[in-house]
Amino acid sequence: MTETPLPYNDRVTSLSPAADTTVLDYDFELTREDGLTVIRIRDGARETLTNGVDYVFPSGLGDTDGGSIQLGVGSLESDQYLLVGYHPLTRLSDFLASRAFDTSKINADLDALTIIAQEQGRDIARSLKFEFGVGSAILPVPAPVAGLALVGNDDGDGYVNKDIGTPEKGAFGISMLATATKAAAQALLGGGAAGIAVFEAETQAAGRSALGAGTTGAALFTAANAAAAALIIGAIANVDTVYGAPGDGSASDVAAFEAANTAGGLIYAPKPATGRTFGSPVAMDNAALLVDPTQTWDQLTDGGELNMHRGHFTDTGDGANIWRFSDRVFIGEAASKWAGAAALSSPTRDAGTSWFASYDDGPAYLGIGANLLVTAEANTENGLKIAGAFAATAEAETSPAMALSAFVSNARTSSSSASWALYVEAFHLDGAGSWTYGMEMEVRNASADDIDPNPYDFSAGKGALGIWLAASGHTDYGPAAANPCAAALVIGRNGAAGSWNKGIVFTENGLEGTDGSSGSSTYASAIALARHQRIEWFDPTNDLVAASITSGITAYANRVDMEFRDHQILFRGANQIGALDIQATIGAANYLQVVSNVTTAAPYIAATGTDTDVDLRLRPKNAGLLRFGTHAAIGAETVTGYITIKDDAGTSRKLAVVS
């Protein structure tokens, strides 16, 4: 007979399935559906699921290798499921003298008892137990009482319920908290004590005076934040006092900073008496520096010898904020990618890791002197890594809102020194698989306002504008305007290799009025100009206008339009009826000239082209006739000659010439 022993199993399956999983497997035997408890842990909350509602059993009952359940709703990404077996306490066999001995029932009973023993062993192993040698017996645990805690008794052989908030020995702090009135609290402090003076002080100065001039208490009283308080009480190690950094500009600071780096944590670096001296690069890759912001970059780093790997916020969030000094604000990974990693000893470079192969490849302004360093901590749900976001809402009727403002005032006299209120630089590197935007501005009109402005009408005073380039003339701040600003928008290049393929591009459906398709019959306004505002082209040899397009029309009734069509240029008047139609022929070799002329010489219309002889056709419509000159009646005349012409069909004709 083959023996099949029941293997040991703790009869618990813990699962962390992927999102949208609906089938969960367990690896132990179940004889009935009520022998399984399914617990779901979602966002820290535990919930016992219901059979027949939250899940069903498609298969597996009675299988010693286990089975599976089918969830009604798929799992979420962070769900955890516990499938716990609880075998019901049942007996299958019954012995009667008059009946045969049924070994299958006995085996089923023994299997059930084995499973129950496994579950009891599992549950006992998870319970609290006393160590051997504690005693032969523990007194019974008292029944729970609301508001009391279960603690060991004085003899150590049992438990009692006790109010742990009530001090047995009258602790001063707890007594103070328990006082019902201000007077009772003052009495605990002692009559006339400094504590009462602080308690009753109306101002910060009075409170400091009560603590005593020059004491640690006074310094703590005036501390602006937790970091300052930690420095006062020594919770943050000082690299000078704890690790012996001299900071005198001559003795080496290397050993002290290396020891601080080995210790790790947050290290305070005060302003040195003269400056730090390293002599060779030192990497702060374990400890993070909290520095006195009144020192210069050279004083702190000895011209870049100190490499502060953790001296900024990193993507993983494990860095510390390092205050740096001067005039720069770095956002995003610029905070951790200071240029100049190739030469730590150069006093003109920061000791960071750069995006670029060398310092010369990077922008010049990614250098010395960051004031504020900020990086994105994590990716957002839509896949963007956002380093800094600014928001403002204008709600009060008299209060406008400004989400981000940049200001610069240029008073430098050097002609080679420019200033920027805002500067954006984006690099599209080789291998990049998507667009790189120097700037994208998304403006949304979520109101009922549908404003269609023109150069003469911004009277609505509301609506959504993309960019408003305003030449400032107000004097709310700064000096008054003295002359026009040079240009509202300039499209140029920095360096000989930089260029644009297009100056301005309007996408096919970017403007209201047309979708840009070949079937569109309506129009959109791409550029709106006022009267006598013109588009100009300049002589490349000087600064004089060489060509221009403008409009001098004074009223809508005098309107004219020009439209390009397939092989056609159409000029229309105010009634939208054509005024002039110029058409081109595919494969044309001959065309028309309209030539002006000097005084006493007549302007003319001429035929020209690649043919040696080119006729000029004047063609009336249908039965219409050609008109020219003025008719005058005369008497009998003699024909003195003729002029050869051709009719519209190309047949030569002769016009008589009379005396």
How would you summarize the topology of this molecule?
Blueprint: E1 12-15, E2 23-26, E3 36-42, E4 45-48, E5 55-59, E6 67-71, E7 80-85, H1 103-125, E8 149-152, E9 159-162, H2 172-178, H3 182-189, H4 194-200, H5 204-211, H6 216-222, H7 226-233, E10 237-238, H8 254-263, E11 265-269, E12 282-283, E13 287-291, H9 297-301, E14 306-307, E15 328-331, E16 370-374, E17 535-538, E18 545-549, E19 561-565, E20 568-572, E21 578-583, E22 590-595, E23 604-609, E24 639-646, E25 652-658
Helix pairs in contact: 4-5, 5-6
Overall geometry: elongated
Instruction: Give a count of the beta strands, DSSP E runs of length 2 or more.
Output: 25
Distance between the termini: 146 Å
Characterize the biggest β-sheet: 4 strands, antiparallel
> Which range best describes the helical content: under 10%, 10-25%, 25-40%, 40-55%, 55-70% or over 70%?
10-25%
Average of pLDDT? 77
| Unreliable segments of 5+ consecutive residues | 166-170, 310-328, 338-359, 364-378
Record the strand order, biggest sheet.
1-7-3-4
Q: Pairing-aware structural class of the strands and helices?
A: alpha+beta
Rg value: 46 Å
Oligomer: single chain
Tell me what portion of residues adopts beta-strand conformation: 15-25%
Helical stretch tally: 9
